[in-house]
Amino acid sequence: MHIAYYITAHGYGHGVRSCDILAALLARHSDIRVTVTTDLPEVFLSSRLQEADGRLTVRPGAFDVGMVQKDSIRVDVDATLDEALELAAERPVLVDIEAEFLRGEGADLVVADIPSIPLEAAAEAGLPAVAVGNFSWDWIYAPFTARDPRWLRVINLFEQGYRQA
To answer: In total, how many domains does the chain have?
Structure first.
């Protein structure tokens, strides 16, 4: 089985959780191979998944913007919206490209912690998909709609994507 696993690079918590999941899967199932797509540093993943025995491939890629941060504790809501709207404009092309990648790689399952574009790509490629997380970006962004109604477009796109899982 080939799992295409997508991890947001917004904070290391997603990566830590996903590495725990991947380590358990790889330890229990010798027939699983995984392609991880993330902008997390490859050394972050490889240092936590040393038992992968060549069954893990990492490719760079990002499919959400998370929250743009002003510094280590403050977010820039306006900059986040700008980047999220840019991503929304690119979304149809990204879904198509990623669906083609999934078909070309022979993926059997898509797992996303927690970008939604890979879930849409999985649906387009006819693959099952699982979303992993303790929150979703539509939920995080929802309070910002009172500040700027353009957030509704971003939220709706995430909701559509998450429904594919």
So the answer is: 1
